[in-house]
Amino acid sequence: MQAPPQLMGSDLGNPPHGKDSAFATDTNQKAIWETDDISARILAIVFDYALDKFDDSRERLALGMVNFLSTINNFVMAEEPVDMCLPGFPFKSANKINKVLGFLPDKAEELALQRLDTMCLHRDTSAYGEALRALAVKKGFNQIIFSRLKDLAGLELPQKLSEIVYVANATNFRRYLLNKYGKEDYDINYEIATDPDTLMTYCGYKRFLESDLQHIFPTGENRSHNGYRRDVKYLAKEMVIRGCAFTGAIKAAFPNHLRLSIHQSTGEHKVSLSLLHTKTGYTTPWHCCVALMANGE
């Protein structure tokens, strides 16, 4: 994509007079128009990869368009690549019976990374993360950079974490984020009741947890169906509370990035992406298996 023209000399100095003034104004306006056009084309590309299988998907994307364009404009005016931030790829689902085949990345993650890399080119947990990075390198997905929890927490740890070091510090990561970015007066029930984004995230967590944990904590003599659902709701709320702190850490670490999300949202503050090219609904690569159909799709 063509970068906007540089504004030099009188275009950036004191306002000139007469014909010079008209020329400078036209030059500035042209630069603004070209910048806006480039930003709009970039956002259109991102929107091509957004969640679009819901009746109001386009309306939700439109809600945040002004904010998204403003963020992209900052990069375009500086003639720099547009940086985007997508929290995701935590680990494979615990449900190895109905949802996934194992605990390491597979074809689903490869397709998701390829989808993200293509968008940019248009212009067990520790083991999962290490294998995911190796997969990106092996497949040449050079537009993707990974950040770890330790990068957000600012803890002095080796660049390459062994499994023992990772496990030993996992609780420290969470505690640091909650202490630094958590809100003591955060009322999760109030947020779910009043904030649409929080409600959608909570419902998504609840839905995935209910299927993820059903074979690890089966219902029966010692656990009723109602009790299981009640526990899942509690766990989903705890995840939202931690997610609030995580969001604060992301904003602090990547303040100027275009914010992407794997979750359904109102569309005002982040672009919800579909990591896999599905025909109905959406899912994430760590919650599913992929298969090659007879027609080649």
Automatic annotation (TrEMBL):
Keywords: Transferase. It comes from Fusarium circinatum (Pitch canker fungus). Residues 1-23 are annotated as: Disordered. The keyword Acyltransferase does not apply. GO terms for molecular function: transferase activity. Pfam families: DIT1_PvcA. This is Transferase family. InterPro entries: Isocyanide_synthase_DIT1.
